[in-house]
Amino acid sequence: MYAPGNTVPSYSKPKRGRRTWPRKRTATHVCSFAGCGKTYTKSSHLKAHLRTHTGEKPYHCSWEGCGWKFARSDELTRHYRKHTGHRPFQCHLCERAFSRSDHLALHMKRHM
């Protein structure tokens, strides 16, 4: 029994669908190339990694006269920004904008 003025311990259920501990996925996809053995949690990541061994570059730039090829689709997307001039990463402290997030991150260090 609790006397007036004492605090009652509160209990709250964890929100549905949320974990209270960090979940680590088991790396089940292993590179089979001799001497490599890198592991990945997603098969798509292993597939992209295998291209580093095979040299396959299935993503082709369709810009007229370009001819660049890439192993990953995100590399092609980044490359297209060179042709279009698209700069989606805007500095919130000045007017500068960048085509790559890592270039914005480097720029932000100048404001410190």
TrEMBL record:
Keyword Metal-binding, does the record have it? yes
Report if keyword Nucleus is assigned: yes
Record GO terms (molecular function): DNA-binding transcription factor activity, RNA polymerase II-specific; RNA polymerase II cis-regulatory region sequence-specific DNA binding; zinc ion binding
Chief location of this protein within or outside the cell: nucleus
| Keyword annotations | DNA-binding, Metal-binding, Nucleus, Repeat, Transcription, Transcription regulation, Zinc, Zinc-finger
- InterPro entries from the UniProt entry: Znf_C2H2_sf, Znf_C2H2_type
What sequence ranges are listed for the domain C2H2-type? Answer: 29-58, 59-88, 89-112
Region feature Disordered, mapped onto this chain:
1-21
Per the record, what is one GO cellular component? nucleus
Record's subcellular location: Nucleus
The name this protein goes by in its record: Krueppel-like factor 2
At the highest ranks, the source species' classification is:
Eukaryota, Metazoa, Chordata, Craniata, Vertebrata
